[in-house]
Amino acid sequence: MRASFEQLEAFVTTLNEVSFSAAARKCNKAQLVISTLVANLEVDLDVELFDRSRRYPSLTKAGEALISPAEILLERRSRFLAVADA
């Protein structure tokens, strides 16, 4: 599998929360876990999603191209699970 939902959640949450540490707090995970999930996603997809050269990570061009599809996948998964639970 090239991308898990957990990796996609870490990717999207890192962007939304502006940092790996804030994403970790939001997800109730250690910062190292969030960083590792995103790094492994980058390895699995063979792209760099975030520019980490500054204090806060920012999306690369590849990250910009992939953030919307990642958000859509997570939303559809959420809807799927809601229907399954109903």
Question: What's the number of helices?
Answer: 4
Structural class: mainly alpha
Tell me about the largest β-sheet: 2 strands, antiparallel
Flag low-confidence runs: none
Amount of beta strand: under 5%
Helix content: over 70%
Terminus-to-terminus distance: 28 Å
Output the strand order for the largest sheet. Answer: 1-2
What's the shape? globular
The CATH architecture can be given as Orthogonal Bundle
Structural domains: how many: 1
Element string (H = helix, E = strand)? HHHEEH
Radius of gyration: 13 Å
CATH superfamily: Winged helix-like DNA-binding domain superfamily/Winged helix DNA-binding domain
**Level-1 CATH class name:** Mainly Alpha
Q: Please give the number of β-strands.
A: 2
Mean of all residue-level pLDDT scores = 96
What CATH calls the topology is Arc Repressor Mutant, subunit A
Any descriptors?
mainly alpha; Arc Repressor Mutant, subunit A; two-stranded antiparallel sheet; 4 helices
Describe the structure.
The protein has 86 residues and is mainly alpha-helical. It has four helices and two strands; from the N terminus they run H-H-H-E-E-H. It has a two-stranded antiparallel sheet with strand order 1-2. Helix 1 (5-17) crosses helix 2 and helix 1 packs across helix 3. The model has no long low-confidence stretch (mean pLDDT 96).
